[in-house]
Hints:
By secondary structure, this protein is α+β, with helices and mostly antiparallel strands. The protein folds into three domains: about 1-70, Arc Repressor Mutant, subunit A (Orthogonal Bundle), CATH 1.10.10; about 80-130, no CATH class; about 140-180 and about 195-245, no CATH class. The protein has ten helices and seven strands. The strands form three sheets. It has a three-stranded antiparallel β-sheet with strand order 3-6-7, covered by helices on one side. Helix 2 packs antiparallel against helix 3, helix 3 (about 30-40) packs antiparallel against helix 4 (about 45-55) and helix 3 crosses helix 5.
Amino acid sequence: MISSMNRFILTAEEKASLELQHLQCKEKKDSDRLKAVLLLSEGWTVAKISQALRVHQTTIIRYINEYHDGKLKNESGGSDSKLDVSQTEELISHLEAHTYHHVHEIIFFIKDKWGISFSIPGMNKWLHRQAFSYKKPKGFPHKANPKLQEEFITEYEKLKSEVGGEEPILFMDAVHPIQATKLSYGWIRTGQTKHVETTGSRTRLNIVGAIQLGNIAETVTAQYETINGESIVDFTHLTQHLSKFEVH
C-alpha cells in the first residue's frame, strides 16, 4: 500500500484544485487531508508527511485511501449529510427562534424530531458552519415606551424652564431588591442580536429614594414594609425636613 503511494501522481488540474481548497479550508483535519495528498504527490514519503503533520502514519495512509474513494473532508461526528436541505433550513429557523444554552439540548431536539444522532463535537461544527456563535443576548427594558419617554422629556424641559433655579426638582422612585433576569450564553446566529425581556420578582425589601440633579451626592432613602400612598406621603414629609431637598 505504501509503495504504491510513493508513486502517487496528480494532474496539474487536480493539484491546482487541491491547492485552492487548502487555501480556503478552515477545518484543521480537512487541511491535513489536503496537505497529505499534495505532499505525497510532490514526492514526500508517508513517514515524512506523518512527522510534518504530527499524525500517525496509519492516519496518512487513511487520508490517501479516502482521497482515492472521493472523500476530502472529515465527516466524523457532524456531517452536513446527516440533515437534508429541508431539515437544515427548519433547524436553522428553529434555532433563530429558540435560544439553547447547551449543545446537548440541540442534539436531543434533533434526535427527538428526526431520529438523527449528533456528537457534541459534531454539533459544534455544524453550528459554526451554519454561522451560529456562542454569545449573550442583549436585554432591553420590558416596559420601555419610546412615545412616553419623549412626552416625559418634553414635560421635564417645560418644568425646568418654569421653575428656573428657584425650586429644586427631585427624582423619586421606589425600588425592590429583585432576582433579576440573568442573561447567559447561548447559540445565536452570527451577526444577529437576540433580545430577552428583563424582568424580576419582588422580594421583602421596599426602598424609596430621591435625588436632586446638580446635587446627586446628597441622596435620601427610606425603607418601608410596603410601598403605597401612605409610604410615599411619609417619604415626602421626610424630604421636606432636609434643607437641600426642600419641596414647595
